[in-house]
Amino acid sequence: MSTISRASDRISRYGVLLLALTLVGGLYTAFYAPKSSATEQQPASSQSMAVKEGRDLFLTGCSTCHGLNLQGGAGGPTLIGVGASAVVFQVESGRMPLNAGEVQAPRKQPKYSVAEVDQLAAYIQSRGGGPTLPPGSLTDGDLAMGGELFRTNCASCHNAGGAGGALTYGKYAPKLQPASPRVIYAAMQHGPESMPRFGDNQLSVAEKKSITRYVSYLTKAGQPGGNDLGRFGPVPEGLVVWLVGIGSLVVLTLWIGNRA
Amino acid sequence: MSATTHDDGPVLTGEPIAPTTLGGKAVAGSAAWMDDRISGSNFVRRSLNKVFPDHWSFMLGEVALYSFVILLLTGTYLTFFYDASTREVIYAGSYLPMKGITMSQAYASSLDISFDVRGGLLMRQIHHWAALLFMASIVVHLFRVFFTGAFRKPREINWVIGVLLMILGIVEGFAGYSLPDDLLSGTGLRIAYSIMLSIPVVGTWVAFLVFGGEYPGDAIIERLYAIHILLVPGIILGLITAHLMLVWYNKHTQFAGPGRTEDNVIGSRLFPAYAAKAGGFFFLVFGVLAALGGFAQINPIWNYGPYDPSQVSAGSQPDWYVGWLDGSSRLMPNYEIRELGHTIPLNILLPAVVMPGILFTLMIVYPWLESRFTGDKGYHNILDRPRDVPVRTAVGVMSITFYVVLLLSGGNDIIAHVFRVSVNHTTYAGRIGLFVLPPLAYVLTKRVCYALQRSDEELLHHGIESGTIRRLPSGEFIEETVPMPVPQRLALRGVESDRPMLQGPTAHGVEGHATGPGHGDLHMVETAPAKVRGFFFEKKASGSTAAPRPESSTPELETSGRPSQPE
Known about the structure:
The structure holds two protein chains of two kinds.
Chain A: H1 2-38, H2 44-61, H3 63-66, H4 84-92, H5 114-126, H6 143-153, H7 155-158, E1 165-166, E2 172-173, H8 181-190, H9 205-220, H10 234-257
Antiparallel strand pairs in A: 1-2
Helix pairs in contact in A: 2-5, 4-5, 4-8, 6-9, 8-9
Chain B: E1 3-6, H1 22-38, H2 41-48, E2 51-52, H3 60-81, E3 88-90, E4 102-104, H4 105-115, H5 120-147, H6 156-178, H7 183-197, H8 203-211, H9 220-250, E5 264-269, H10 270-295, H11 301-304, H12 320-331, E6 337-339, E7 342-344, H13 346-374, H14 390-410, H15 412-418, H16 423-462, E8 464-471, E9 477-482, H17 486-493, H18 519-525, H19 528-537
Antiparallel strand pairs in B: 1-5, 2-5, 3-4, 6-7, 8-9
Helix pairs in contact in B: 3-5, 3-10, 4-5, 5-6, 5-10, 6-9, 6-13, 7-8, 12-13, 12-14, 14-16
C-alpha cells in the first residue's frame, strides 16, 4: 500500500518538475534566446553568409569526428554550446584539426585562415551559442593589473615568463609566445583540456583583456639582459654555467697550463 | 723554465744587481725603505721564489678564488643601490608592467638596479653568474683534489676547510638568491622555512628564530642581507686565507715525473711565471663572466613579480647548487609519522635534512676513512693518477652519479616539458636511477681503471707504436714499437713503490689473463684489514707483483704481441 502511494508520489513530483522545466525552457526560448541573437554584431545577412560558409567548412573538415550535426562521436566531443571562442582557440592555434590521438592536442601550423576561422566560429555559435570574444581590441586592458592577475592565475602552470610547464602524465601548459591575443583571450573563456575556464564571473572582461595585454607584452616585447635561455629559470642557468662557464674555463686552463 | 726547491725552498743567494733605470731605482728605493722598517725582504724573496708545479688541473681552484673576487667587487656595487627593507612601497620606476604595484622596498630597489641604475643590470647579472661559477668551480676543484688523492696526509685540514667553504658557498648563494624578494626567492624561502619546520621537536622554534616569527614575517630579508654581505663572506674570506696559507705551508702537490719525489716541488717560480699566469687567468675568468652577464639573462626578477604568498610560478627552482636537495625532495615518497599529536614529515626531513647531513659528514671525514681502510698513514706529496686507485675513483664516480640523478630530478619538470615526456615517469626514473645507477657507475669505473692500467702496462712493456711495419720471415706483419721516453715512463709508473703493495687478486683475471701467483693461498692468510687494503688498491699487473704476461715472454720483434689471426 504505502509503497504504491510513495511511487505515485514520486511520479507526480517528477511530473511537476518536468512541467516546470518545460515552462522555463519555453520562456527562455520565447524571450531570452531571440534577444541574444539580436545582440550579434554583424548584420543578419553577412552573419548568415558566414554561417553558411562555416557550415561548408565544418562538413568538409570537422564533421568526420564531431558529427554532421555537431553531436560528436567516437573521435570528438559534441560542439553544441561550446561557443565561438572555443573555435578561435582550437582552430586558429592549429590544434584542430587533430592529427592523431595524443595526450594533448599540440599547437600546429593553422589549417584555416583567420577569415575561415570566423566563419567556422559563426556556424558553431549559431548551433547552441556559447562564449564569444568581446568586441573591440582585446589588448586595451591595464598592463600592471594584467601582470598581477597573470602571476596569480596563470604563472603556476604557464611559468612567470610564459615558457609553459609540465603537468601530470605528459600533459603540459604550452608556451605562450606563439599565441595571438585572440587565442589568449579565447583560451581563458574556453578553458581547453587541463586549463580551468575563466568565465566572466571569475575574471571580468576588463581583467581578461588586461591579462591578454600583459601576455602579449611579456612574450613579444624584447627582454633586457641578453638571451632569455628559454625562460625556464635556474635550470638552464645551471646548465649554462657548467657548459659555457666551466667548459670554457677548463679549455682556457688547458691552454695556459701548457705555457709554462 | 723550471726550478726545484728542497723542503723549505733554498733562498737563492747572489749579488744584488744595482738598478740602473729610473723606475728600477724607485722600486729599489721604496723596497729598501720598507725593508728598513718591517724587514720583509727575506720573506718576500722566499715567497716570490716559491715553486709551484704546473698542471692545468691545478688552476681550477683559482677559478673559484677569482669568482669570489668578482663577487666582492660586483656585490659592493650592488650594495650601493640595494635597500634591504620589507617596507611596502608603490613602484614608480621605469618598468611599465610594474607601475603602481605594491611591493617591498627590497624588490623595488632590485628592479631599480635592473632598470634605472647605470650598469646595474650588468652588475647584477655578472654577480649572479659569478655566484653560480663560484660554486661550480669549487666542485670541479673538489673533483681534482679527490680523484688525485690530494687530500691525504698532510692535507686533511685543507680538505675540511674546502668542504666548509663549499657548504658556506651554498648558504651564501641561497641568501643572495633570496634578497631580491621576488616571487622566486620568496618561494625558495618558504621551502627553507618548511625544511626547518620538519626538524622534530625544535623545528618550529628554529624556524621562528630564523624568520622572527611566522613565515614570511618582516625580518628575514634584513637578516639575510646582513648574513649575505657581512657574516658569511667574512668567514669565507677567512677560510680562503687559511686554505691558501696551508697550500703555501704544505706546498703544492705534484704529479709523478722526472726528478719529482715526495720531498721536492718541480715547476715554475711564483714570480714571474706563475704570477703572470695567474694574473692573466683572473682576467680570463672575468672575461667569461662579463660575457655571460652581458649576453645571457639570469634571474629576470621583473617576470617573477613581487613576492606574494598566494602565487607560485611553474619552474620555480633553486640555483643549481641547491638543486640536488630539490631533487631529493621530489623523489622522496610521501611518508610521514603521526604520533602523540605530532607529525614528523619524513618526506622533507629525510631528503632535505638527514641526507645532506650524512653526505656532508662523510665528505668531511673521507680522508680519515680512506686512511683507515687502506692503513696508509704516510705523507703524500705526489698525486695519484685516478686509474691507479680504482676503488677511490669508483667511489667518486659513484657519488657523482648519485648527485647527478638528484640534480636532474630537481629539474625534472623542465626536462619533462622540454623533451615531451611525462613528469611522473621522470620521477619514477629518478627513484630507480638513484639506487641502480651509482652501483653500476662504481663497477664500470673500476673496469675502466683496470683497462687503463692495462694499457699503461702495454706501453711500458711493449713501448709506443712507431708506425713502422715489418714483415717477418714467416710472412707475418708486425709493427715495431719504440721504448717509451723516460719522462713519460716516470709519469706512468709514478711512485707506486711506496704504496702498500699487496699480492692480492690482480684484476680478477679479467679477459682470461693469469691472476697473481698463489692467488688462493694469499686469500687464506690475509688478515681482515689487509683484505680491505687489498680491496682499495687491488690493481695493476705491475712490476714485481705482476704475473708474467704470456706475450711478453716472446721476443718483441718476432711477434706483434697480439694473438695471431686465425687463418
